[in-house]
Amino acid sequence: MQVQRPSLSQEQRLKMNPQLYQSIKLMELPIVDLRERIEEEVERNPALEVLEDRLTVSLDEAYAPQKDEDTYFEESSDPGFIRKGGDSDADEQNKFIEGALSRPETLQEHLLWQLRLQPVDDAIRRIGERLIQNLNADGFNEEPLPALLKGKDPAAVEAALSLVRSLDPQGTCTADYRESLRVQAKLLPEAPPGLEDALEYLELLERGKLAELGKKINRTEDEVRLIADRIKELSPFPGRQFSTEDTRYVVPDVQVIRKEGEFVIVLNEEEIPVLGINPFFMKISGGKEEEKTARDFARENIKEARWFIQSINQRNHTLLRVSRAIVEFQRSFFANGPKYLAPLTLKDIAQELGVHETTVSRTANGKYMQTEWGIFEIKHFFTNSISGAGSGGSRYSKEGVKEIIRELIQSEARNFSDQELSDLLAQKGIPLARRTVAKYRKELDFGSSYTR
Question: Which residue ranges are recorded for the region named Disordered (predicted)?
Protein backbone atom coordinates (compact mmCIF):
# COMPACT_ATOMS: atom_id res chain seq x y z
CA MET A 1 0.00 0.00 0.00
CA GLN A 2 1.40 3.34 -1.09
CA VAL A 3 1.39 6.18 1.44
CA GLN A 4 1.75 9.83 0.51
CA ARG A 5 4.03 11.76 2.85
CA PRO A 6 4.79 15.49 2.79
CA SER A 7 8.38 16.36 1.90
CA LEU A 8 10.47 19.51 1.66
CA SER A 9 12.78 20.36 -1.20
CA GLN A 10 14.89 23.38 -2.16
CA GLU A 11 15.08 24.76 -5.68
CA GLN A 12 16.14 28.01 -7.31
CA ARG A 13 13.67 29.95 -9.44
CA LEU A 14 13.91 33.29 -11.20
CA LYS A 15 10.87 35.32 -10.28
CA MET A 16 9.88 38.04 -12.76
CA ASN A 17 9.46 41.12 -10.58
CA PRO A 18 8.30 44.46 -12.06
CA GLN A 19 11.82 45.91 -12.10
CA LEU A 20 13.27 42.94 -14.00
CA TYR A 21 10.37 43.05 -16.46
CA GLN A 22 10.98 46.77 -17.03
CA SER A 23 14.69 46.14 -17.64
CA ILE A 24 13.89 43.48 -20.25
CA LYS A 25 11.41 45.73 -22.05
CA LEU A 26 13.90 48.62 -22.15
CA MET A 27 16.52 46.25 -23.59
CA GLU A 28 14.27 45.65 -26.62
CA LEU A 29 13.53 49.29 -27.45
CA PRO A 30 15.23 51.00 -30.41
CA ILE A 31 16.56 54.47 -29.74
CA VAL A 32 13.48 56.34 -31.01
CA ASP A 33 11.09 54.24 -28.92
CA LEU A 34 13.45 54.51 -25.93
CA ARG A 35 13.24 58.29 -26.05
CA GLU A 36 9.44 58.13 -26.02
CA ARG A 37 9.56 55.71 -23.08
CA ILE A 38 11.87 58.08 -21.18
CA GLU A 39 9.46 60.99 -21.75
CA GLU A 40 6.58 58.86 -20.42
CA GLU A 41 8.55 57.89 -17.31
CA VAL A 42 9.61 61.51 -16.62
CA GLU A 43 5.94 62.55 -16.73
CA ARG A 44 4.91 59.64 -14.49
CA ASN A 45 7.68 59.80 -11.87
CA PRO A 46 8.21 63.25 -10.28
CA ALA A 47 11.53 62.12 -8.75
CA LEU A 48 13.02 61.62 -12.23
CA GLU A 49 14.20 64.66 -14.16
CA VAL A 50 16.07 65.44 -17.36
CA LEU A 51 19.45 67.00 -16.61
CA GLU A 52 20.42 67.53 -20.26
CA ASP A 53 18.67 66.99 -23.58
CA ARG A 54 21.03 67.33 -26.52
CA LEU A 55 18.16 67.56 -29.01
CA THR A 56 16.63 70.62 -27.30
CA VAL A 57 17.66 74.01 -28.69
CA SER A 58 18.49 76.59 -26.02
CA LEU A 59 17.10 80.13 -26.09
CA ASP A 60 20.58 81.49 -26.81
CA GLU A 61 20.82 79.35 -29.92
CA ALA A 62 17.26 80.16 -30.97
CA TYR A 63 17.87 83.92 -30.84
CA ALA A 64 21.43 83.86 -32.18
CA PRO A 65 22.22 86.33 -35.02
CA GLN A 66 21.26 84.97 -38.41
CA LYS A 67 23.92 83.98 -40.91
CA ASP A 68 23.84 85.09 -44.51
CA GLU A 69 22.41 81.78 -45.69
CA ASP A 70 19.54 82.14 -43.21
CA THR A 71 18.34 85.33 -44.92
CA TYR A 72 17.79 83.91 -48.40
CA PHE A 73 14.06 83.58 -47.90
CA GLU A 74 13.57 87.03 -46.41
CA GLU A 75 15.57 88.77 -49.11
CA SER A 76 14.40 86.88 -52.18
CA SER A 77 10.72 86.84 -51.17
CA ASP A 78 10.53 90.64 -50.77
CA PRO A 79 9.65 92.18 -54.16
CA GLY A 80 10.98 95.54 -53.00
CA PHE A 81 14.37 94.27 -51.88
CA ILE A 82 17.22 95.44 -54.09
CA ARG A 83 20.80 94.36 -53.55
CA LYS A 84 23.67 96.46 -54.74
CA GLY A 85 25.84 94.93 -57.41
CA GLY A 86 23.70 94.50 -60.48
CA ASP A 87 22.29 90.99 -60.95
CA SER A 88 23.17 89.68 -57.50
CA ASP A 89 19.51 89.89 -56.49
CA ALA A 90 18.73 87.30 -59.17
CA ASP A 91 21.54 85.12 -57.83
CA GLU A 92 20.04 85.29 -54.35
CA GLN A 93 16.64 84.30 -55.71
CA ASN A 94 18.16 81.35 -57.55
CA LYS A 95 19.88 80.23 -54.36
CA PHE A 96 16.57 80.30 -52.55
CA ILE A 97 14.78 78.36 -55.28
CA GLU A 98 17.54 75.74 -55.38
CA GLY A 99 17.56 75.40 -51.61
CA ALA A 100 13.79 75.28 -51.15
CA LEU A 101 12.36 72.17 -49.57
CA SER A 102 10.43 69.87 -51.85
CA ARG A 103 8.53 66.62 -51.52
CA PRO A 104 8.02 63.90 -54.14
CA GLU A 105 4.90 64.13 -56.30
CA THR A 106 2.34 61.40 -55.69
CA LEU A 107 0.68 59.34 -58.40
CA GLN A 108 -2.68 60.96 -57.68
CA GLU A 109 -1.25 64.48 -57.89
CA HIS A 110 0.47 63.70 -61.18
CA LEU A 111 -2.70 62.29 -62.76
CA LEU A 112 -5.03 64.99 -61.39
CA TRP A 113 -2.76 67.71 -62.79
CA GLN A 114 -3.02 66.15 -66.26
CA LEU A 115 -6.76 65.57 -65.93
CA ARG A 116 -7.42 69.26 -65.18
CA LEU A 117 -5.71 70.18 -68.46
CA GLN A 118 -7.99 67.96 -70.55
CA PRO A 119 -10.87 69.65 -72.48
CA VAL A 120 -13.67 67.42 -71.16
CA ASP A 121 -17.06 67.93 -69.55
CA ASP A 122 -17.31 68.48 -65.82
CA ALA A 123 -19.18 65.19 -65.39
CA ILE A 124 -16.32 63.22 -66.99
CA ARG A 125 -13.76 65.21 -65.00
CA ARG A 126 -15.51 64.44 -61.70
CA ILE A 127 -15.65 60.72 -62.52
CA GLY A 128 -11.98 60.83 -63.52
CA GLU A 129 -11.07 62.44 -60.19
CA ARG A 130 -12.92 59.69 -58.34
CA LEU A 131 -11.14 57.03 -60.38
CA ILE A 132 -7.74 58.56 -59.63
CA GLN A 133 -8.42 58.84 -55.89
CA ASN A 134 -9.33 55.13 -55.92
CA LEU A 135 -5.84 54.02 -57.07
CA ASN A 136 -3.36 52.19 -54.87
CA ALA A 137 0.44 52.55 -54.94
CA ASP A 138 0.72 50.21 -57.96
CA GLY A 139 -1.81 52.21 -59.98
CA PHE A 140 -4.57 49.59 -59.65
CA ASN A 141 -8.16 50.04 -58.45
CA GLU A 142 -8.71 49.76 -54.70
CA GLU A 143 -12.49 49.39 -54.86
CA PRO A 144 -14.30 47.60 -57.72
CA LEU A 145 -15.49 50.10 -60.30
CA PRO A 146 -19.17 48.95 -60.32
CA ALA A 147 -19.45 49.74 -56.60
CA LEU A 148 -17.41 52.94 -56.87
CA LEU A 149 -19.38 54.44 -59.77
CA LYS A 150 -22.83 53.06 -59.07
CA GLY A 151 -25.53 55.19 -60.66
CA LYS A 152 -23.17 57.08 -62.98
CA ASP A 153 -23.79 57.43 -66.70
CA PRO A 154 -22.10 54.41 -68.39
CA ALA A 155 -20.98 56.50 -71.36
CA ALA A 156 -19.35 59.09 -69.08
CA VAL A 157 -17.70 56.32 -67.03
CA GLU A 158 -16.24 54.71 -70.15
CA ALA A 159 -14.97 58.06 -71.42
CA ALA A 160 -13.37 58.94 -68.06
CA LEU A 161 -11.84 55.47 -67.73
CA SER A 162 -10.28 55.63 -71.20
CA LEU A 163 -8.97 59.13 -70.51
CA VAL A 164 -7.31 58.28 -67.16
CA ARG A 165 -5.76 55.10 -68.58
CA SER A 166 -4.16 57.14 -71.38
CA LEU A 167 -2.55 59.66 -69.02
CA ASP A 168 1.06 59.36 -67.92
CA PRO A 169 1.86 56.78 -66.64
CA GLN A 170 -0.27 54.75 -69.00
CA GLY A 171 -2.09 51.66 -67.78
CA THR A 172 -3.43 52.88 -64.44
CA CYS A 173 -7.06 52.39 -63.37
CA THR A 174 -6.87 48.64 -64.06
CA ALA A 175 -7.58 45.56 -61.97
CA ASP A 176 -4.11 43.97 -62.08
CA TYR A 177 -0.83 43.93 -63.97
CA ARG A 178 -2.20 41.74 -66.77
CA GLU A 179 -4.97 44.20 -67.60
CA SER A 180 -2.50 47.07 -67.26
CA LEU A 181 -0.18 45.49 -69.84
CA ARG A 182 -3.10 44.94 -72.21
CA VAL A 183 -4.14 48.59 -71.91
CA GLN A 184 -0.57 49.78 -72.50
CA ALA A 185 -0.27 47.46 -75.51
CA LYS A 186 -3.34 49.03 -77.12
CA LEU A 187 -1.88 52.51 -76.58
CA LEU A 188 1.55 51.52 -77.88
CA PRO A 189 2.36 53.31 -81.18
CA GLU A 190 3.17 51.00 -84.10
CA ALA A 191 2.73 47.87 -82.02
CA PRO A 192 4.00 44.74 -83.82
CA PRO A 193 1.32 42.25 -84.90
CA GLY A 194 0.62 39.58 -82.30
CA LEU A 195 1.68 41.64 -79.28
CA GLU A 196 -1.69 41.50 -77.53
CA ASP A 197 -1.91 37.74 -78.18
CA ALA A 198 1.57 37.26 -76.66
CA LEU A 199 0.42 38.88 -73.41
CA GLU A 200 -1.81 35.85 -72.83
CA TYR A 201 1.36 33.72 -72.47
CA LEU A 202 3.51 35.79 -70.12
CA GLU A 203 4.86 32.66 -68.44
CA LEU A 204 6.46 31.53 -71.70
CA LEU A 205 7.89 35.01 -72.22
CA GLU A 206 9.38 35.04 -68.72
CA ARG A 207 11.06 31.68 -69.28
CA GLY A 208 12.38 32.82 -72.65
CA LYS A 209 10.64 30.07 -74.61
CA LEU A 210 10.21 32.16 -77.75
CA ALA A 211 9.89 29.23 -80.17
CA GLU A 212 7.05 27.70 -78.16
CA LEU A 213 5.36 31.10 -77.89
CA GLY A 214 5.65 31.56 -81.66
CA LYS A 215 3.71 28.34 -82.20
CA LYS A 216 1.00 29.50 -79.80
CA ILE A 217 0.41 32.82 -81.57
CA ASN A 218 1.39 31.66 -85.07
CA ARG A 219 4.42 33.95 -85.42
CA THR A 220 8.05 33.37 -86.42
CA GLU A 221 10.78 33.43 -83.79
CA ASP A 222 12.09 36.75 -85.13
CA GLU A 223 8.63 38.27 -84.86
CA VAL A 224 8.30 36.95 -81.31
CA ARG A 225 11.68 38.45 -80.43
CA LEU A 226 10.49 41.85 -81.71
CA ILE A 227 7.29 41.47 -79.69
CA ALA A 228 9.31 40.62 -76.56
CA ASP A 229 11.46 43.73 -76.99
CA ARG A 230 8.36 45.93 -77.18
CA ILE A 231 6.78 44.29 -74.13
CA LYS A 232 9.90 45.14 -72.14
CA GLU A 233 9.04 48.80 -72.71
CA LEU A 234 5.79 48.34 -70.75
CA SER A 235 5.45 48.68 -66.99
CA PRO A 236 3.40 46.00 -65.19
CA PHE A 237 3.06 48.28 -62.12
CA PRO A 238 2.77 51.81 -63.56
CA GLY A 239 2.21 53.56 -60.22
CA ARG A 240 5.34 52.35 -58.47
CA GLN A 241 7.56 55.08 -59.88
CA PHE A 242 5.60 57.53 -57.71
CA SER A 243 5.35 55.33 -54.63
CA THR A 244 6.82 56.74 -51.41
CA GLU A 245 5.42 54.10 -49.05
CA ASP A 246 8.67 52.12 -48.93
CA THR A 247 10.66 55.11 -47.65
CA ARG A 248 11.64 54.61 -44.05
CA TYR A 249 13.78 56.83 -41.89
CA VAL A 250 15.75 55.13 -39.14
CA VAL A 251 18.02 56.45 -36.44
CA PRO A 252 21.10 54.25 -35.89
CA ASP A 253 21.69 53.18 -32.30
CA VAL A 254 25.43 52.66 -32.80
CA GLN A 255 28.05 53.78 -35.29
CA VAL A 256 31.20 51.96 -36.37
CA ILE A 257 34.05 54.27 -37.40
CA ARG A 258 37.44 53.22 -38.75
CA LYS A 259 40.31 55.18 -37.22
CA GLU A 260 43.95 54.38 -37.95
CA GLY A 261 43.11 50.84 -39.01
CA GLU A 262 40.97 50.08 -35.95
CA PHE A 263 37.19 50.07 -35.57
CA VAL A 264 35.69 52.38 -32.97
CA ILE A 265 32.12 51.79 -31.77
CA VAL A 266 30.17 54.92 -30.81
CA LEU A 267 26.82 54.80 -29.05
CA ASN A 268 24.29 57.34 -30.31
CA GLU A 269 23.75 59.30 -27.10
CA GLU A 270 22.44 62.43 -28.83
CA GLU A 271 18.93 60.96 -28.82
CA ILE A 272 19.03 59.87 -25.16
CA PRO A 273 18.59 62.62 -22.55
CA VAL A 274 20.75 62.59 -19.41
CA LEU A 275 18.59 61.64 -16.42
CA GLY A 276 19.01 62.35 -12.73
CA ILE A 277 17.16 62.47 -9.38
CA ASN A 278 15.20 65.55 -8.41
CA PRO A 279 17.08 67.26 -5.48
CA PHE A 280 13.81 68.23 -3.81
CA PHE A 281 12.79 64.59 -3.55
CA MET A 282 16.23 63.69 -2.21
CA LYS A 283 15.76 66.29 0.52
CA ILE A 284 12.33 64.96 1.47
CA SER A 285 13.47 61.33 1.55
CA GLY A 286 16.30 62.08 4.00
CA GLY A 287 14.52 64.59 6.19
CA LYS A 288 13.20 63.87 9.65
CA GLU A 289 10.68 66.67 9.93
CA GLU A 290 8.56 65.54 6.97
CA GLU A 291 5.53 63.34 7.45
CA LYS A 292 6.03 59.62 7.05
CA THR A 293 3.62 59.48 4.07
CA ALA A 294 5.55 62.14 2.13
CA ARG A 295 8.89 60.56 3.05
CA ASP A 296 7.76 57.10 1.91
CA PHE A 297 6.34 58.55 -1.32
CA ALA A 298 9.63 60.29 -2.10
CA ARG A 299 11.72 57.21 -1.30
CA GLU A 300 9.58 54.92 -3.46
CA ASN A 301 9.78 57.26 -6.45
CA ILE A 302 13.53 57.71 -6.01
CA LYS A 303 13.94 53.94 -5.90
CA GLU A 304 12.00 53.55 -9.16
CA ALA A 305 13.90 56.41 -10.80
CA ARG A 306 17.27 54.88 -9.90
CA TRP A 307 16.20 51.50 -11.23
CA PHE A 308 14.99 53.11 -14.46
CA ILE A 309 18.32 54.93 -14.94
CA GLN A 310 20.20 51.74 -14.14
CA SER A 311 18.11 49.79 -16.68
CA ILE A 312 18.93 52.32 -19.41
CA ASN A 313 22.63 52.16 -18.57
CA GLN A 314 22.46 48.35 -18.66
CA ARG A 315 20.75 48.49 -22.07
CA ASN A 316 23.45 50.75 -23.49
CA HIS A 317 26.25 48.66 -21.97
CA THR A 318 24.83 45.42 -23.40
CA LEU A 319 24.29 47.03 -26.80
CA LEU A 320 27.93 48.14 -26.89
CA ARG A 321 29.15 44.66 -25.89
CA VAL A 322 27.03 42.97 -28.57
CA SER A 323 28.13 45.51 -31.18
CA ARG A 324 31.79 45.02 -30.26
CA ALA A 325 31.45 41.25 -30.60
CA ILE A 326 29.71 41.60 -33.97
CA VAL A 327 32.52 43.81 -35.26
CA GLU A 328 35.09 41.24 -34.16
CA PHE A 329 33.24 38.37 -35.86
CA GLN A 330 32.42 40.41 -38.99
CA ARG A 331 35.74 42.26 -39.34
CA SER A 332 35.97 41.33 -43.04
CA PHE A 333 32.59 42.92 -43.68
CA PHE A 334 33.49 46.21 -42.01
CA ALA A 335 36.87 46.28 -43.76
CA ASN A 336 35.93 45.15 -47.27
CA GLY A 337 32.18 45.43 -47.82
CA PRO A 338 28.81 43.60 -47.72
CA LYS A 339 29.80 40.61 -49.85
CA TYR A 340 32.32 39.58 -47.16
CA LEU A 341 29.63 39.03 -44.54
CA ALA A 342 30.49 35.81 -42.70
CA PRO A 343 28.05 33.27 -41.23
CA LEU A 344 27.12 34.24 -37.68
CA THR A 345 24.49 33.06 -35.20
CA LEU A 346 23.05 34.39 -31.96
CA LYS A 347 24.71 31.47 -30.19
CA ASP A 348 28.17 32.62 -31.31
CA ILE A 349 27.70 36.07 -29.76
CA ALA A 350 26.00 34.65 -26.65
CA GLN A 351 28.91 32.27 -25.99
CA GLU A 352 31.43 35.05 -26.55
CA LEU A 353 29.72 37.38 -24.05
CA GLY A 354 28.56 34.75 -21.58
CA VAL A 355 24.87 35.65 -21.85
CA HIS A 356 21.75 33.88 -23.06
CA GLU A 357 20.77 33.90 -26.75
CA THR A 358 17.50 35.67 -25.93
CA THR A 359 19.47 38.57 -24.45
CA VAL A 360 21.39 38.95 -27.71
CA SER A 361 18.14 38.69 -29.68
CA ARG A 362 16.43 41.40 -27.60
CA THR A 363 19.47 43.65 -27.87
CA ALA A 364 19.63 43.34 -31.67
CA ASN A 365 15.88 43.52 -32.32
CA GLY A 366 14.79 46.66 -34.20
CA LYS A 367 18.12 48.47 -33.77
CA TYR A 368 20.40 49.78 -36.51
CA MET A 369 24.13 50.18 -36.97
CA GLN A 370 25.73 52.85 -39.13
CA THR A 371 28.83 51.75 -41.06
CA GLU A 372 30.85 53.19 -43.91
CA TRP A 373 28.94 50.76 -46.18
CA GLY A 374 25.56 52.11 -45.11
CA ILE A 375 23.03 51.69 -42.30
CA PHE A 376 22.12 48.08 -41.52
CA GLU A 377 19.73 46.48 -39.08
CA ILE A 378 21.82 44.71 -36.46
CA LYS A 379 19.96 41.47 -37.24
CA HIS A 380 21.45 41.73 -40.76
CA PHE A 381 24.81 40.59 -39.36
CA PHE A 382 23.31 37.30 -38.16
CA THR A 383 23.08 35.03 -41.16
CA ASN A 384 23.41 31.32 -41.86
CA SER A 385 25.94 29.81 -44.20
CA ILE A 386 24.80 28.74 -47.67
CA SER A 387 24.87 25.14 -46.44
CA GLY A 388 22.33 26.04 -43.75
CA ALA A 389 24.58 24.93 -40.91
CA GLY A 390 25.00 28.29 -39.23
CA SER A 391 28.49 29.53 -38.57
CA GLY A 392 29.74 25.95 -38.44
CA GLY A 393 29.00 25.27 -42.10
CA SER A 394 30.35 26.95 -45.21
CA ARG A 395 32.47 30.07 -44.82
CA TYR A 396 30.09 31.88 -47.18
CA SER A 397 26.99 33.43 -45.64
CA LYS A 398 23.64 33.66 -47.36
CA GLU A 399 23.68 37.49 -47.35
CA GLY A 400 27.26 37.56 -48.59
CA VAL A 401 26.44 35.28 -51.53
CA LYS A 402 23.40 37.42 -52.35
CA GLU A 403 25.69 40.45 -52.60
CA ILE A 404 27.97 38.53 -54.98
CA ILE A 405 24.91 37.64 -57.11
CA ARG A 406 23.92 41.32 -57.08
CA GLU A 407 27.36 42.29 -58.38
CA LEU A 408 27.23 39.65 -61.11
CA ILE A 409 23.82 40.82 -62.31
CA GLN A 410 24.65 44.53 -62.20
CA SER A 411 27.95 44.09 -64.05
CA GLU A 412 26.80 41.51 -66.59
CA ALA A 413 27.56 42.17 -70.24
CA ARG A 414 24.47 40.14 -71.09
CA ASN A 415 21.60 38.71 -69.10
CA PHE A 416 22.86 35.60 -67.31
CA SER A 417 20.39 32.82 -66.68
CA ASP A 418 20.12 31.30 -63.21
CA GLN A 419 22.15 28.29 -64.36
CA GLU A 420 24.89 30.56 -65.71
CA LEU A 421 24.95 32.46 -62.41
CA SER A 422 25.25 29.12 -60.62
CA ASP A 423 28.21 28.17 -62.83
CA LEU A 424 29.93 31.53 -62.20
CA LEU A 425 29.51 31.08 -58.44
CA ALA A 426 30.97 27.57 -58.69
CA GLN A 427 34.04 29.05 -60.36
CA LYS A 428 34.44 31.26 -57.29
CA GLY A 429 34.25 28.22 -55.02
CA ILE A 430 30.62 28.75 -54.05
CA PRO A 431 28.59 25.66 -54.98
CA LEU A 432 24.95 26.66 -55.24
CA ALA A 433 22.03 24.94 -56.99
CA ARG A 434 20.18 26.77 -59.76
CA ARG A 435 16.92 26.88 -57.79
CA THR A 436 18.77 28.42 -54.83
CA VAL A 437 20.25 31.07 -57.13
CA ALA A 438 16.74 31.79 -58.42
CA LYS A 439 15.47 32.14 -54.85
CA TYR A 440 18.25 34.58 -53.88
CA ARG A 441 17.75 36.54 -57.11
CA LYS A 442 14.05 37.03 -56.32
CA GLU A 443 14.91 38.13 -52.76
CA LEU A 444 17.18 40.77 -54.30
CA ASP A 445 14.20 41.93 -56.40
CA PHE A 446 15.83 41.08 -59.74
CA GLY A 447 13.78 39.62 -62.55
CA SER A 448 14.69 36.62 -64.66
CA SER A 449 17.22 36.90 -67.47
CA TYR A 450 14.35 37.66 -69.84
CA THR A 451 12.82 40.51 -67.85
CA ARG A 452 16.08 42.21 -66.89
Answer: 67-90
| Helix count and strand count (H, E) for the chain | 22, 6
Helices (H), 152-237: 154-166, 177-187, 195-198, 202-206, 210-217, 221-231
Q: Identify which of 79, 107, 48 has the alpha carbon closest to the alpha carbon of residue 302.
A: 48
Give the three-state DSSP class for 93.
helix
**Backbone phi, psi, residue 296, to 5°:** -65, -40
pTM beyond cutoff 0.70:
no
Among candidate residues 374, 261, 355, the one with its CA nearest the CA of residue 317: 355
Q: What's the rounded Cα separation, in Å, for the pair 310 and 316?
A: 10
Domain range annotation of the chain: 107-242, 254-276+308-443
Q: Convert the pLDDT of each residue in 154-166 to its tens digit.
A: 898 899 999 999 9
Contact 35, 56 (CB under 8 A): no
Find residue 276's DSSP bridge partners. 49
CA distance 403 to 400: 5
pLDDT in tens, 243-275: 655 555 678 999 999 888 888 999 888 888 888
Pairing between β-strand 254-259 and β-strand 262-267 as defined by DSSP bridges? antiparallel
Asked if 167 and 114 touch (Cβ cutoff 8 Å), the reply is: yes
Q: What is the CA radius of gyration of the chain?
A: 32
Give the separation between CA 368 and CA 231, rounded to whole angstroms: 40
Q: Residue 76 and residue 78: Cα distance in Å, rounded? A: 6
Residue 273 CB partners (closer than 8 Å, separation 6+) = 35, 38, 50, 51, 52, 53, 54, 55
